[in-house]
Amino acid sequence: MDLSLASVVCHTPNPVAADVAGETVLMSLERSRCYGLGGIVSEIWSKLASPVKVADLVEEFSSRYQAPPGVIERDVLQMLSQLADEGLIKVR
Fold first, then answer.
1. At a CB cut-off of 8 Å and minimum separation 6, what does 81 contact?
2. Which of 32, 53, 64, 89 could form a disulfide with 83 if both were Cys (CB 3.0 to 4.6 A apart)?
3. How far apart are CA 54 and CA 70, in angstroms?
4. Which long-range contacts (CB under 8 A, 24 or more apart) does 72-78 make?
5. From CA 57, how far away is CA 42, in angstroms rounded?
């Protein structure tokens, strides 16, 4: 899978997700796994309801959070890669 800033990402069809105490819990029925997403990752997940360009996610979170150059980009790409590897998001 080639995930980059130019990629467009979104949820897979009909993800099983619930809000629990302000965090998102996902269930992969195909893999029989449950995932707990922390605060910022839950925010990113909510933005994936519609297709969104990875660069736009990075830009938005870079404007909201302070981090050394490249850290937010690296973290967002890593998190999206993990979600894609688990079959929870589509990458175009």
1. 1, 3
2. 89
3. 14
4. 73/5, 76/44, 77/3, 77/4, 77/5
5. 13
